[in-house]
Amino acid sequence: MVYKLYDLTPEEIEIVEGNPSDSQLYEGVLERIRHDYAVTPRDVVTDGGYASLKNQEKAKEKGVVNIVFNKIVGTLKNIVTNGNMESRLKKWRSGIEAVISNVKRGFNLFRCEWKGREHFDAKVLWSVIAYNIRVITGLLLTKLAPQPQ
């Protein structure tokens, strides 16, 4: 049986078919951010899979000011207003990697053995929801715990 959270539209979530390379997804991600939030991000930091001169140029064309790839390839250089900004963006990206790792390990997202696309989508969606519930619950329990006097 497949459980649907609600009728999702492509504008609300995207789980891509197959295993496209990150570099192919970069421009689409920037477009979705602009569409969903009606703003172009000032700063963008990604892992090395997105790193390419083409992607850097696309980000500049869209008005991104600070463009940082965690791993540089070839002659590509990060575009930043200063070294402090580059360090801050890289540290932020490291924090995101921890979240991704936590979701993958905590909810066994390394391999989905559920058969069919609907089952795969359900596995991903429910895992993300469960992770968010776990984080929110942890924060609430911390606030509710008696404080030492």
Description of the structure:
This protein is mostly helical and 149 residues long. The chain has 4 helices and 2 strands; from the N terminus they run αβαβαα. It has a single domain, classed as Nucleotidyltransferase, domain 5 (2-Layer Sandwich). 52% of the residues lie in helices and 5% in strands. The chain has a two-stranded parallel ribbon with strand order 1-2. Strand 1 (43-46), helix 2 (53-61) and strand 2 form a beta-alpha-beta unit. The protein is globular. The protein starts with 21 loop residues before the first helix and ends in a 5-residue tail after the last helix.
Q: What would the keywords be for this entry?
A:
149 residues; mainly alpha; Nucleotidyltransferase, domain 5; two-stranded parallel ribbon; 2 strands; 5% strand
Helix content: 40-55%
Oligomer: single chain
CATH class: Alpha Beta
How is the CATH topology named? Answer: Nucleotidyltransferase, domain 5
